[in-house]
Design brief:
588 residues, Alpha-Beta Plaits, 3 domains, 17 strands, four-stranded parallel beta sheet, 35% helix, five-stranded mixed beta sheet, Fe-only Hydrogenase (Larger Subunit), Chain L, domain 3, Ubiquitin-like (UB roll), alpha/beta
Length: 588
C-alpha cells in the first residue's frame, strides 16, 4: 500500500508529503535547507542544537523541524523574521561557549559549526562566554583525541556509538549545565571498551573528536638521511584521497597519490594491496584447512582491528573462530622488515614503515604489543637488546592526515602525473583492491579458495551476492559439490546478529566477514569528510572499477607474492608464515 500523502504548505507553496515524514526531511527533499548540527537521518534525532526551528501556523511556540512530523493541512514557514532571530540566538549561545582557536583547530577547514554560523549570517557573538565545564583533553586513546571543551552536546557521537556500532563507549552524563559527553567513570577512551573505530569522528560537527597524530615524527623521519622511510597505502585510500583536494567522491587517484608520496620524500612507495593478496593466500588456506580437518567454524576474517577489539571486549568466547592471520597492514610491516630488509641488505632498524589507512583503529593495531614479529625474527641474528625494540609498523596516517601533509608540502595534487608503485611490495591484483569495500575480503578469499580446492578456473569471477550496502548479506557457494554458506556484515550492530548465532551454537556459516565501519574500509573513521551513504557508494563503485581494470584479479596469481613464498616464506601456513603473519588475541 502506498504511503498516505498529506497536503502541506511550506513557505507558501503546496506539496504532497508522505505521512510520518519530519518537517526537516520534507524540506531537505524539496530543496529547502534548514540548519541542524545534531540530526543524522535514521541515527540521531536528539533535537539538541535547536537550530532547526520553524514556524507552524496555529502553533504558538517555534517547533524543532527534526522531530516534528508533517500533518495534513499544515502550513510551515522556515524563514520568517521570528524564526531567523531565534536560530541566530541559539547559534550565538553555542558560539559563546566554544573555544576561539579556529586557526589551529584540526577541523578548521571542515567544521560544521563554523560553516553553519557563517551561512546563518552570524558576524558577532553578543553574549559573554557562557560558563561551561572546562575539562582536560582526553588523550588516553592511541587513536582518538577527545576535547570536551569543543563539544556542543549534539549527541551525534553517542548515537553512532550506540545505534550503529552497539559499543556504548560514550554517553551524556550530568544534568543541566553540568551535562557533558564522557566515558564510564570519566576514565577516558583508552580505558573503556572503545574499539577505536572513529565513526564518532565522522559525525562530530566540531573539533571535539579528532585523530591522534604523529605527523611531526614522520616529517622528522623523512628528513633523517640514515632512515629508509617506506609507505604502504590501503585500498580504500585511493578511492577517497582525491576528496581532500576537491575531486569528486569516487575519483580513483591511485597514480597521483603515488606521485605525491614520492614528492613528500618517501624512499619507497608500496601498496598494502600486496599484503592483502598475501593475506588471502594465508586466510584462504586457513579456511580450506578448517573445512577439510573439521576445525572450528565459522572462520571469521580478522582484517578489521576495530572489530577484533570489539570481539575481545564483548565476545571473548568466539576468539577461537577468528582467523589467526594478521591484517594486511601488519603483514606488510613484518615482511618489509624481514624479507625486504634481507633482499635489500639493510638493517631493519633503519627501516621506518608508515601506513596510510582509512581507519583510526589501525593506529591502535600498530601499537598492539604482539605486533613486533620482525624484531623477534632478527633478535638472535643481530643480538638485539630490549632497548633495540621496534614495531612492525612505526606510524599510521589516516587519509585525512596524508592529505594535510601533501598540502603542507605545497604539492599540487590534482595536476600531478600518474606514477606506479615500487616493486616488489607494490604489485597487487584486483582481489586485493576490493578489500576496501564490505564483502571484498570474502569475495577475494572465495576467488582463491575455489580454485585451490577445485583446481579449476572460476566460471564467474564476480561474487555479486556479497556486494552492496545491505547490513547482512548471506550466500551459498558450490565448490565441487560442497555447499559453503557464507555471511558478510558491516557495522558492529549488524555483526552482533551473526555473533549471537555463533555464541548460541546455531550459526550455519563456514566463513564470515565482519567489517567495523558502515560500507567497510571506504567508510572508515579516517576518511575525508563528509562520509555518508552517497559518498560511501561512490567510493565502493570506484573500488570495483579498479578491480575490473586489473590485469590479474586473483590473489594466488600475484607474481610478487608467489616469489615471496618461493624465496622466503616457503608455503602458506608454513613455519615462517606462522611466526611473521599470524597472531593471537586476548580477552579484555
Amino acid at each position: 500500500m502506498a504511503d498516505k500523502l498529506f497536503q502541506v504548505k511550506i513557505d507558501g507553496k503546496n506539496y504532497e508529503i508522505a505521512a510520518g515524514t519530519s518537517i526537516l526531511k520534507a524540506c531537505q527533499d524539496i530543496g529547502i535547507a534548514i540548519p541542524t548540527l545534531c540530526y543524522l537521518e535514521g541515527v540521531s534525532e536528539a533535537a539538541a542544537c535547536s537550530l532547526c526551528l520553524v514556524e507552524i501556523k496555529g502553533v504558538k511556540p517555534l517547533m524543532r523541524a527534526c522531530v516534528t512530523k508533517v500533518r495534513d493541512g499544515m502550513e510551515v514557514n522556515t524563514f520568517s523574521a521570528r524564526v531567523n532571530k531565534a536560530r541566530k540566538v541559539n547559534m550565538e549561545l553555542l558560539l559563546a561557549g566554544h573555544p576561539k582557536d579556529c586557526f589551529v583547530c584540526d577541523r578548521n577547514q571542515d567544521c560544521e559549526l563554523r560553516r553553519m554560523a557563517f551561512e546563518m549570517g552570524i558576524r558577532e557573538v553578543r553574549f559573554p562566554k557562557v560558563t561551561t565545564l572546562e575539562t582536560e583533553v582526553d588523550i588516553s586513546s592511541p587513536s582518538i583525541i577527545r576535547d570536551p571543551n569543543k563539544c556542543i552536546l549534539c549527541r551525534r557521537c553517542v548515537s553512532v556509538c550506540s545505534a550503529i556500532q552497539a559499543v556504548h563507549a560514550i554517553d551524556a552524563v550530568g544534568r543541566g549545565k553540568q551535562t557533558k559527553i564522557s566515558t564510564y567513570g570519566d576514565k577516558g577512551l583508552g580505558h573503556v571498551a572503545c574499539i577505536n573505530c572513529g565513526q564518532c569522528l565522522l559525525v562530530c560537527p566540531t573539533g571535539a573528536l579528532t585523530e591522534q597524530t604523529k605527523v611531526s615524527d614522520i616529517w622528522r623521519a623523512l628528513t633523517d638521511p640514515k632512515k629508509i622511510v617506506m609507505v604502504e597505502t590501503a585500498p580504500a585510500v585511493r578511492a577517497a584521497i582525491g576528496e581532500e583536494f576537491g575531486l569528486e567522491p569516487g575519483t580513483l587517484a591511485t597514480g597521483k597519490m603515488v606521485a605525491a608520496l614520492r614528492r613528500l620524500g618517501f624512499n619507497k612507495v608500496f601498496d598494502t594491496q600486496f599484503s592483502a593478496d598475501l593475506t588471502i593466500l594465508e586466510e584462504g588456506h586457513e579456511l580450506i584447512e578448517r573445512i577439510k580437518n573439521k576445525g572450528v567454524l565459522p572462520l571469521i576474517t580478522s582484517c578489521s582491528p576495530g572489530w577484533i577489539k570489539f570481539a575481545e571486549h564483548f565476545y571473548p568466547g568466539i576468539l577461537k573462530n577468528l582467523s589467526t592471520c594478521k591484517s594486511p597492514q601488519q603483514m606488510f610491516g613484518a615482511i618489509a622488515k624481514t624479507y625486504y630488509a634481507e633482499k635489500m641488505k639493510v638493517d631493519p632498524r633503519d627501516i621506518v614503515v608508515v601506513s596510510i589507512m582509512p581507519c583510526v583503529a589501525k593506529k591502535f593495531e600498530a601499537d598492539r604489543p604482539e605486533m613486533d614479529s620482525a624484531f623477534h625474527y632478527w633478535k638472535d641474528t643481530l643480538k638485539l637488546k630490549p632497548e633495540d625494540h621496534f614495531k612492525d609498523v612505526d606510524f599510521v596516517l589516516t587519509t585525512r592526515e596524508a592529505g594535510r601533509m601533501v598540502r603542507e608540502a605545497g604539492i599540487d595534487f590534482v595536476h600531478l602525473p600518474d606514477e606506479d608503485f615500487d616493486a616488489p611490495l607494490g604489485v597487487s591484483t584486483g582481489a586485493a583492491v576490493i578489500f576496501g569495500a564490505t564483502g571484498g575480503v570474502m569475495e577475494a578469499a572465495l576467488r582463491t579458495a575455489y580454485e585451490v580446492l577445485t583446481g579449476n578456473p572460476l566460471p564467474k569471477i564476480d561474487f555479486e551476492s556479497v556486494r552492496g550496502l545491505k547490513g547482512i548479506k548471506t550466500a551459498e557457494v558450490d565448490i565441487n559439490g560442497m555447499k559453503v554458506k557464507i555471511a558478510v556484515a558491516h557495522s558492529l550492530g549488524h555483526a552482533r546478529v551473526l555473533l549471537d548465532e555463533i555464541k548460541e551454537g546455531r550459526s550455519p556459516y563456514a566463513f564470515i566477514e565482519i567489517m567495523t565501519c558502515p560500507g567497510g574500509c571506504i567508510g572508515g573513521g579516517g576518511q575525508p569528510l563528509p562520509t555518508n551513504t552517497v559518498v560511501r557508494q561512490k567510493r565502493i563503485d570506484a573500488i570495483y572499477r579498479e578491480d575490473k581494470n586489473k590485469q590479474l584479479r586473483k590473489s594466488h596469481e600475484n607474481p610478487a607474492v608467489l616469489a615471496l613464498y618461493n624465496e622466503f616464506l616457503g608455503k602458506p601456513l608454513g613455519e615462517k608464515s606462522h611466526h611473521l603473519l599470524h597472531t593471537t588475541y586476548v580477552k579484555r
